[in-house]
Amino acid sequence: MIAFQVSAKRLHRCRVKLRDEVLKRASLFPYFDDSGRVHSIMLVWPESPDIVLLPYRPELVHVPRFGRVTFDAERAGLRGVGAGEAAELTAGCWHEDPWWVLKAERFEGNAAVPVLKATNSAGQWRVTMADCVYQRDLSRIVGLQKPEGEVVPYVSGNLPSRCTAPSPTRRKSWRLVPFWQNHRSGLEVSR
After folding, report:
1. Cβ distance 159 to 115 under 8 Å?
2. Quick one: residue 115, left, alpha or beta (phi over 0 = left, psi -120 to 50 = alpha)?
3. Three-class HEC string of 11-60
4. Which region among 63-77, 119-133, 169-183 has the lowest average model confidence (pLDDT)?
5. Which helix (H) or strand (E) holds 174?
């Protein structure tokens, strides 16, 4: 059973082979829902301030037992996400990042960071665990590794029931309402 699983530690600071380039010390973070199913995968690497987040598909990632992780994309096709797209791709999901990679200086000012940080399951687990364990194709989280090394099956409810990322902030703006629509005041706040 262990041969077909991959830990979150294996996905952190690893070599990721894209179709046209190899990224060194890259990190992959699967975003999973309460049932354990992965919906999207985040990719970051030290040379870039971009946070790449792609919807999960079975052929997107291949994690061999040893060596480089293969990511089915070209470097030129990878682009960073904004806050709105990040919220959409991670709605109701968690990711496990005990290293808090998004606190790195290179991500300062990135609007997606607060949205993505809010989905970090590190410190949120209702059980004592040392690592997350995923199926080798990263389609789902299958277990939790205890501090003593034992892997127990992942079960729904090990995390708070709902993880909602903050929505991107929208500024309030004033607009004049025609007098025939609002007799009390000519101003209204729109969001």
Report:
1. no
2. alpha
3. HCCEEEECCCCEEEEEEEEEEECCCCEEEEEEEECCCCCCCEEEECCCCC
4. 169-183
5. strand 173-176
Helix/strand/coil (H/E/C) assignment for every residue in 67-89: CCEEECCCHHHCCCCCHHHHHHH
Q: Which of 64, 54, 59, 65 is nearest to 29 (CA)?
A: 54
- Answer for the pair 77, 71: CB distance below 8 angstroms, yes or no: no
Whether 41 and 138 have beta carbons less than 8 Å apart is answered as: yes
For residue 74, the Cα-to-chain-centroid distance in whole angstroms is: 20
- Whole-number Å distance between alpha carbons of 171 and 191: 7
- Could you report the per-residue pLDDT of 9-41, keeping only the tens digit for each? 999 999 999 999 999 999 999 999 999 999 999
Q: Which pTM does this prediction carry?
A: 0.81
**CA atoms of 190 and 168, how far apart (whole Å):** 16
For residue range 40-52, list pLDDT tens digits in order.
Answer: 999 999 999 999 9
